[in-house]
Prior knowledge:
By secondary structure, the chain is mainly beta. The protein has a single domain (about 20-165), classed as Competence, DNA-entry nuclease inhibitor, ComJ (Substrate Binding Domain Of DNAk, Chain A, domain 1). The chain has one helix and eleven strands. It has one helix at about 45-50, and strands at about 20-25, 30-35, 55, 60-65, 70-80, 90-95, 100-105, 115, 120-130, 145-150, 160-165. A hairpin with a 2-residue loop joins strand 3 and strand 4 (about 60-65). The longest helix has 6 residues, at about 45-50. It is globular and about 35 Å long. The two termini are about 20 Å apart.
Amino acid sequence: MTGCPANSLWSIAMNPPLLAETQVSFSHWQVLIYDSAVANPCLEWTEGHSGQGFARKESALCLGTLLQAGDAVVRVYSGQYTWREGYQRVLSVPFFTPTGRVIIHGLMEFYLGRVIFLQPQHYLLIAAQRLVGDISDDEADDLETIELYFAGMGNNPATCSQILTADEGLNPPNTLLEDADEMQ
Length: 184
């Protein structure tokens, strides 16, 4: 796959349907999102992948979290991203689900994958992330909100990932990395 510019413009749609809401316990700065046909969803993170906030393959996404470890309320929508104020990081990546069964879980939660049912096709997957509460407070929960939008692309699959909103934790390469190696 070829790389794409790190930033560009994006159009939005209103009120996509909510498919699911769940809580995920994450660690090692990541949440895994992948098609059920993927044998090994764990991907190698290079410095470039860390800088852009994700590592991906055609049917697997290791989404970088805003916190090293904690819990995330994950909401999954069918449709295009709806802009909402307060999100610190918003990424879009091409995603293909040949089976229509997408699994979401934290790195240490393989036994607890959540399955989302979609139409088997190419999607543009938009991930919008924000922290909940005041993380400077030692007693605050390590909680994130992650909203995932699966926008069907039909016969015109997306080819480029984009950073739509960057937080201070991102330092992306000039050309985003569109492919990652599987962890051995």
